[in-house]
Amino acid sequence: MNEFYDSLAERERANAQDVALKYGRMLNPCYELLLSAKAASASPYYVGLSSDMGSFTHVTKRVVLVADTMLLSDHGVGAVHELGEHERTISLDFLGDNPRLSPSERQTWRYGMVTTDLVRLGQWLLDAEPLLRCGLVWYGPVFTTGKSGGTVGLRIEPAGPLPTFSDRSIDFVVEHGRAVDLVRTKPLASRVVRPILEIDLPFINGLNLSDFAQVTREEFDSYRQHRDFMRARLLELDDALEAVDSPVALERVALSIRDELNAATAEMSSAARSQALNRAGAVLGTTSAVLAAVRPEALQGALASSATIAAGATGLWPTIQAFADIKSKRTHGKWHYVWVLQKKNTR
Q1: Cβ-contact 146, 162 below 8 angstroms
Q2: pLDDT digits over 38-48, tens only?
Q3: Which is higher by pLDDT, 27 or 79?
Q4: Three-state SS string across 132-193, please?
Q5: Contact predicate 131/213, CB 8 Å
Protein backbone atom coordinates (compact mmCIF):
# COMPACT_ATOMS: atom_id res chain seq x y z
CA MET A 1 0.00 0.00 0.00
CA ASN A 2 3.00 2.31 0.41
CA GLU A 3 3.31 2.46 -3.39
CA PHE A 4 -0.28 3.68 -3.70
CA TYR A 5 -0.01 6.41 -1.07
CA ASP A 6 3.43 7.54 -2.28
CA SER A 7 1.96 8.00 -5.77
CA LEU A 8 -0.81 10.37 -4.60
CA ALA A 9 -0.10 13.98 -5.49
CA GLU A 10 -1.46 16.77 -3.29
CA ARG A 11 -4.08 17.70 -5.90
CA GLU A 12 -5.26 14.07 -6.00
CA ARG A 13 -5.57 13.93 -2.21
CA ALA A 14 -7.89 16.94 -2.40
CA ASN A 15 -10.49 14.88 -4.29
CA ALA A 16 -11.67 11.82 -2.32
CA GLN A 17 -13.52 10.36 -5.31
CA ASP A 18 -10.34 10.39 -7.43
CA VAL A 19 -8.47 8.69 -4.56
CA ALA A 20 -10.99 5.84 -4.53
CA LEU A 21 -10.86 5.40 -8.32
CA LYS A 22 -7.05 5.44 -8.38
CA TYR A 23 -6.95 2.83 -5.60
CA GLY A 24 -9.20 0.55 -7.65
CA ARG A 25 -7.07 0.93 -10.79
CA MET A 26 -3.82 0.33 -8.92
CA LEU A 27 -5.10 -2.69 -6.97
CA ASN A 28 -6.83 -4.46 -9.86
CA PRO A 29 -3.72 -6.07 -11.46
CA CYS A 30 -2.48 -7.53 -8.14
CA TYR A 31 -5.86 -8.22 -6.57
CA GLU A 32 -5.93 -12.00 -7.06
CA LEU A 33 -2.36 -12.22 -5.76
CA LEU A 34 -3.34 -10.39 -2.58
CA LEU A 35 -6.35 -12.66 -2.06
CA SER A 36 -4.16 -15.73 -2.61
CA ALA A 37 -1.71 -14.45 0.00
CA LYS A 38 -4.61 -14.00 2.40
CA ALA A 39 -5.85 -17.53 1.76
CA ALA A 40 -2.35 -18.92 2.36
CA SER A 41 -1.82 -16.87 5.53
CA ALA A 42 -0.97 -18.92 8.60
CA SER A 43 -2.55 -16.30 10.83
CA PRO A 44 -5.55 -17.71 12.68
CA TYR A 45 -7.19 -14.30 12.76
CA TYR A 46 -6.91 -12.58 9.39
CA VAL A 47 -10.40 -11.06 9.16
CA GLY A 48 -12.37 -10.81 5.95
CA LEU A 49 -15.26 -8.43 6.63
CA SER A 50 -18.05 -7.27 4.35
CA SER A 51 -19.64 -4.12 5.77
CA ASP A 52 -21.86 -1.31 4.57
CA MET A 53 -19.86 1.81 3.78
CA GLY A 54 -21.48 3.77 6.60
CA SER A 55 -19.91 1.40 9.18
CA PHE A 56 -16.31 1.54 7.91
CA THR A 57 -15.07 4.00 10.53
CA HIS A 58 -16.99 2.27 13.33
CA VAL A 59 -15.61 -1.12 12.32
CA THR A 60 -12.02 0.07 11.87
CA LYS A 61 -11.77 1.56 15.37
CA ARG A 62 -12.99 -1.63 17.03
CA VAL A 63 -11.69 -4.53 14.94
CA VAL A 64 -8.05 -3.42 15.01
CA LEU A 65 -7.70 -4.85 18.53
CA VAL A 66 -8.94 -8.35 17.72
CA ALA A 67 -7.69 -8.73 14.14
CA ASP A 68 -4.18 -9.47 12.95
CA THR A 69 -5.03 -7.93 9.58
CA MET A 70 -8.44 -6.81 8.36
CA LEU A 71 -9.67 -7.03 4.77
CA LEU A 72 -12.62 -4.66 4.56
CA SER A 73 -15.00 -4.70 1.62
CA ASP A 74 -18.33 -3.34 0.47
CA HIS A 75 -21.32 -5.66 0.28
CA GLY A 76 -21.06 -5.57 -3.51
CA VAL A 77 -24.39 -3.82 -3.98
CA GLY A 78 -24.35 -0.30 -5.36
CA ALA A 79 -23.39 1.68 -8.42
CA VAL A 80 -20.74 0.37 -10.82
CA HIS A 81 -17.94 2.90 -11.33
CA GLU A 82 -15.94 2.32 -14.49
CA LEU A 83 -12.18 2.22 -13.99
CA GLY A 84 -10.86 1.52 -17.48
CA GLU A 85 -10.18 -1.23 -19.98
CA HIS A 86 -8.00 -4.31 -20.13
CA GLU A 87 -6.55 -5.27 -23.52
CA ARG A 88 -4.68 -8.27 -24.78
CA THR A 89 -3.74 -9.64 -28.18
CA ILE A 90 -4.25 -13.33 -28.91
CA SER A 91 -2.93 -15.26 -31.90
CA LEU A 92 -5.44 -17.10 -34.08
CA ASP A 93 -3.20 -19.90 -35.31
CA PHE A 94 -5.10 -20.93 -38.44
CA LEU A 95 -1.99 -21.02 -40.63
CA GLY A 96 0.42 -23.13 -38.62
CA ASP A 97 3.03 -22.22 -36.04
CA ASN A 98 4.55 -19.23 -37.82
CA PRO A 99 3.43 -16.12 -35.89
CA ARG A 100 4.16 -13.89 -38.90
CA LEU A 101 1.49 -15.71 -40.90
CA SER A 102 -1.04 -16.01 -38.06
CA PRO A 103 -3.80 -13.40 -37.76
CA SER A 104 -4.42 -11.96 -34.30
CA GLU A 105 -7.34 -10.60 -32.37
CA ARG A 106 -7.21 -7.80 -29.85
CA GLN A 107 -9.71 -8.32 -27.04
CA THR A 108 -10.92 -5.56 -24.72
CA TRP A 109 -12.73 -5.79 -21.38
CA ARG A 110 -14.25 -2.86 -19.53
CA TYR A 111 -13.84 -3.15 -15.78
CA GLY A 112 -15.05 -1.24 -12.76
CA MET A 113 -15.74 -1.50 -9.05
CA VAL A 114 -18.98 -1.54 -7.11
CA THR A 115 -19.59 0.77 -4.17
CA THR A 116 -22.39 2.89 -2.83
CA ASP A 117 -20.28 5.99 -2.18
CA LEU A 118 -16.95 6.77 -3.88
CA VAL A 119 -16.41 9.95 -1.88
CA ARG A 120 -16.86 8.23 1.48
CA LEU A 121 -14.60 5.37 0.39
CA GLY A 122 -11.88 7.79 -0.75
CA GLN A 123 -12.06 9.71 2.53
CA TRP A 124 -11.76 6.46 4.52
CA LEU A 125 -8.69 5.51 2.46
CA LEU A 126 -7.11 8.86 3.33
CA ASP A 127 -8.07 8.80 7.01
CA ALA A 128 -6.92 5.19 7.54
CA GLU A 129 -3.63 5.71 5.66
CA PRO A 130 -1.31 4.82 8.59
CA LEU A 131 -3.19 1.53 9.13
CA LEU A 132 -2.99 0.58 5.45
CA ARG A 133 0.65 1.54 5.18
CA CYS A 134 1.64 -0.81 8.02
CA GLY A 135 -0.61 -3.67 6.88
CA LEU A 136 -3.19 -3.65 9.68
CA VAL A 137 -6.05 -2.95 7.28
CA TRP A 138 -6.69 -2.99 3.54
CA TYR A 139 -9.71 -2.45 1.33
CA GLY A 140 -10.78 -5.15 -1.13
CA PRO A 141 -12.82 -3.60 -3.96
CA VAL A 142 -15.68 -5.52 -5.51
CA PHE A 143 -14.53 -5.64 -9.13
CA THR A 144 -16.79 -6.39 -12.06
CA THR A 145 -15.99 -6.93 -15.75
CA GLY A 146 -18.07 -6.55 -18.89
CA LYS A 147 -18.12 -8.83 -21.94
CA SER A 148 -15.06 -8.65 -24.14
CA GLY A 149 -14.97 -6.83 -27.43
CA GLY A 150 -12.17 -6.74 -29.95
CA THR A 151 -10.97 -6.55 -33.53
CA VAL A 152 -10.31 -9.21 -36.15
CA GLY A 153 -9.07 -7.65 -39.33
CA LEU A 154 -11.27 -4.63 -39.98
CA ARG A 155 -14.19 -5.83 -37.85
CA ILE A 156 -14.60 -4.01 -34.54
CA GLU A 157 -16.79 -5.33 -31.73
CA PRO A 158 -17.16 -2.96 -28.75
CA ALA A 159 -16.77 -4.26 -25.22
CA GLY A 160 -20.09 -4.99 -23.55
CA PRO A 161 -21.63 -2.92 -20.75
CA LEU A 162 -20.63 -3.56 -17.15
CA PRO A 163 -23.02 -5.55 -14.94
CA THR A 164 -25.00 -3.50 -12.46
CA PHE A 165 -23.63 -5.18 -9.31
CA SER A 166 -21.47 -8.01 -8.01
CA ASP A 167 -21.57 -10.04 -4.79
CA ARG A 168 -17.98 -11.31 -4.92
CA SER A 169 -17.23 -9.76 -1.54
CA ILE A 170 -19.34 -12.39 0.20
CA ASP A 171 -16.67 -14.95 -0.64
CA PHE A 172 -14.06 -13.18 1.49
CA VAL A 173 -15.60 -14.40 4.71
CA VAL A 174 -16.46 -17.83 3.36
CA GLU A 175 -13.12 -18.60 1.74
CA HIS A 176 -10.89 -17.24 4.45
CA GLY A 177 -12.75 -18.41 7.49
CA ARG A 178 -12.85 -15.35 9.70
CA ALA A 179 -15.68 -12.90 10.16
CA VAL A 180 -16.85 -9.95 12.20
CA ASP A 181 -20.55 -9.22 12.46
CA LEU A 182 -22.13 -5.97 13.67
CA VAL A 183 -25.52 -6.82 15.11
CA ARG A 184 -28.01 -5.93 17.79
CA THR A 185 -28.76 -9.56 18.68
CA LYS A 186 -26.50 -12.27 20.04
CA PRO A 187 -25.91 -15.65 18.41
CA LEU A 188 -27.88 -18.54 19.88
CA ALA A 189 -26.14 -21.77 20.81
CA SER A 190 -27.03 -24.60 18.42
CA ARG A 191 -25.42 -27.62 16.81
CA VAL A 192 -23.61 -25.33 14.38
CA VAL A 193 -22.94 -22.27 16.60
CA ARG A 194 -20.97 -22.34 19.87
CA PRO A 195 -20.69 -19.02 21.74
CA ILE A 196 -17.33 -19.12 23.55
CA LEU A 197 -17.20 -15.99 25.67
CA GLU A 198 -18.73 -12.55 26.12
CA ILE A 199 -16.44 -9.62 26.90
CA ASP A 200 -16.04 -5.86 26.51
CA LEU A 201 -13.45 -4.95 23.91
CA PRO A 202 -11.63 -1.68 24.63
CA PHE A 203 -11.01 0.97 22.00
CA ILE A 204 -9.93 4.61 22.00
CA ASN A 205 -12.90 6.88 21.28
CA GLY A 206 -13.13 10.62 20.70
CA LEU A 207 -10.50 10.64 17.95
CA ASN A 208 -11.30 11.05 14.29
CA LEU A 209 -10.24 8.10 12.16
CA SER A 210 -7.10 9.80 10.88
CA ASP A 211 -5.79 10.54 14.39
CA PHE A 212 -6.91 7.11 15.62
CA ALA A 213 -4.96 5.39 12.83
CA GLN A 214 -1.82 7.41 13.61
CA VAL A 215 -2.01 6.75 17.36
CA THR A 216 -2.68 3.05 16.82
CA ARG A 217 0.37 2.65 14.63
CA GLU A 218 2.73 4.63 16.83
CA GLU A 219 1.72 4.21 20.45
CA PHE A 220 -0.24 1.10 21.32
CA ASP A 221 2.13 -1.72 22.13
CA SER A 222 -0.85 -3.34 23.85
CA TYR A 223 -2.44 -3.86 20.44
CA ARG A 224 0.49 -5.93 19.22
CA GLN A 225 0.81 -7.86 22.47
CA HIS A 226 -2.88 -8.68 22.48
CA ARG A 227 -2.90 -9.83 18.84
CA ASP A 228 0.06 -12.13 19.46
CA PHE A 229 -1.75 -13.57 22.45
CA MET A 230 -4.99 -14.04 20.48
CA ARG A 231 -3.16 -15.99 17.78
CA ALA A 232 -2.08 -18.57 20.32
CA ARG A 233 -5.51 -18.81 21.99
CA LEU A 234 -7.43 -19.18 18.73
CA LEU A 235 -5.15 -22.00 17.70
CA GLU A 236 -6.23 -23.80 20.89
CA LEU A 237 -9.95 -23.31 20.31
CA ASP A 238 -10.42 -25.97 17.63
CA ASP A 239 -9.15 -28.65 20.01
CA ALA A 240 -11.24 -27.28 22.89
CA LEU A 241 -14.43 -27.32 20.82
CA GLU A 242 -13.95 -30.99 19.95
CA ALA A 243 -12.74 -32.07 23.41
CA VAL A 244 -14.69 -34.68 25.39
CA ASP A 245 -15.28 -32.15 28.15
CA SER A 246 -15.47 -29.14 25.84
CA PRO A 247 -17.24 -26.71 28.25
CA VAL A 248 -14.34 -27.00 30.69
CA ALA A 249 -11.72 -26.73 27.94
CA LEU A 250 -13.45 -23.68 26.44
CA GLU A 251 -13.74 -21.99 29.81
CA ARG A 252 -9.98 -22.33 30.36
CA VAL A 253 -9.33 -20.55 27.05
CA ALA A 254 -12.02 -17.96 27.80
CA LEU A 255 -10.48 -17.14 31.19
CA SER A 256 -7.05 -16.60 29.68
CA ILE A 257 -8.55 -14.32 27.01
CA ARG A 258 -10.38 -12.27 29.65
CA ASP A 259 -7.19 -11.90 31.72
CA GLU A 260 -5.24 -10.68 28.71
CA LEU A 261 -8.01 -8.25 27.74
CA ASN A 262 -8.02 -6.80 31.26
CA ALA A 263 -4.30 -6.10 30.92
CA ALA A 264 -4.78 -4.54 27.47
CA THR A 265 -7.64 -2.39 28.78
CA ALA A 266 -5.51 -1.11 31.66
CA GLU A 267 -2.67 -0.19 29.30
CA MET A 268 -5.02 1.58 26.88
CA SER A 269 -6.66 3.44 29.76
CA SER A 270 -3.27 4.70 30.85
CA ALA A 271 -2.46 5.80 27.30
CA ALA A 272 -5.80 7.60 26.98
CA ARG A 273 -4.92 9.69 30.05
CA SER A 274 -1.66 10.89 28.50
CA GLN A 275 -1.32 14.59 27.71
CA ALA A 276 -1.23 14.17 23.94
CA LEU A 277 -4.40 12.09 23.77
CA ASN A 278 -6.14 14.20 26.40
CA ARG A 279 -5.68 17.30 24.27
CA ALA A 280 -7.32 15.43 21.39
CA GLY A 281 -10.31 14.53 23.60
CA ALA A 282 -9.58 10.82 23.64
CA VAL A 283 -11.37 8.55 26.08
CA LEU A 284 -11.44 4.81 26.59
CA GLY A 285 -14.59 3.20 25.22
CA THR A 286 -15.78 -0.39 25.17
CA THR A 287 -17.81 -2.48 22.78
CA SER A 288 -19.76 -5.48 23.98
CA ALA A 289 -18.57 -8.49 22.00
CA VAL A 290 -19.26 -12.20 21.74
CA LEU A 291 -16.73 -14.64 20.31
CA ALA A 292 -18.63 -17.43 18.56
CA ALA A 293 -17.56 -20.53 16.65
CA VAL A 294 -19.56 -21.52 13.58
CA ARG A 295 -19.48 -24.74 11.57
CA PRO A 296 -17.97 -23.83 8.18
CA GLU A 297 -20.78 -25.23 6.04
CA ALA A 298 -23.36 -23.25 8.02
CA LEU A 299 -21.46 -19.99 7.62
CA GLN A 300 -20.92 -20.65 3.93
CA GLY A 301 -24.60 -21.41 3.39
CA ALA A 302 -25.72 -18.29 5.23
CA LEU A 303 -23.33 -15.96 3.45
CA ALA A 304 -24.29 -17.36 0.05
CA SER A 305 -27.44 -15.30 0.30
CA SER A 306 -26.57 -11.85 -1.01
CA ALA A 307 -29.82 -10.46 0.40
CA THR A 308 -28.70 -11.28 3.94
CA ILE A 309 -25.43 -9.43 3.60
CA ALA A 310 -26.67 -6.58 1.45
CA ALA A 311 -29.88 -5.69 3.21
CA GLY A 312 -29.37 -7.22 6.65
CA ALA A 313 -33.08 -7.96 6.55
CA THR A 314 -32.95 -11.23 8.44
CA GLY A 315 -29.50 -11.06 10.02
CA LEU A 316 -26.57 -13.45 9.98
CA TRP A 317 -27.52 -15.64 12.96
CA PRO A 318 -31.13 -16.47 12.01
CA THR A 319 -29.89 -17.25 8.50
CA ILE A 320 -27.20 -19.61 9.79
CA GLN A 321 -29.77 -21.40 11.96
CA ALA A 322 -32.27 -21.67 9.09
CA PHE A 323 -29.59 -23.12 6.83
CA ALA A 324 -28.57 -25.65 9.50
CA ASP A 325 -32.19 -26.73 10.04
CA ILE A 326 -32.72 -27.68 6.39
CA LYS A 327 -29.30 -29.27 5.86
CA SER A 328 -29.26 -32.77 7.31
CA LYS A 329 -25.72 -33.77 6.38
CA ARG A 330 -23.01 -32.02 8.39
CA THR A 331 -19.48 -31.72 7.10
CA HIS A 332 -16.79 -31.81 9.76
CA GLY A 333 -13.96 -29.35 9.44
CA LYS A 334 -12.36 -26.39 11.13
CA TRP A 335 -14.57 -23.97 12.95
CA HIS A 336 -14.87 -20.37 11.83
CA TYR A 337 -14.52 -17.74 14.55
CA VAL A 338 -16.81 -14.72 14.46
CA TRP A 339 -16.61 -11.66 16.69
CA VAL A 340 -20.10 -10.28 17.21
CA LEU A 341 -19.76 -6.57 17.98
CA GLN A 342 -22.75 -4.71 19.34
CA LYS A 343 -23.32 -1.64 17.17
CA LYS A 344 -24.34 0.92 19.77
CA ASN A 345 -23.28 4.00 17.83
CA THR A 346 -21.54 4.93 14.56
CA ARG A 347 -18.64 7.04 15.80
Answers
A1: yes
A2: 666 655 556 66
A3: 27
A4: HHCCCEEECCEEEECCCEEEECCEEECCCCCCCCCCCCHHHHHHHCEEEEEECCCCCCCCCE
A5: yes
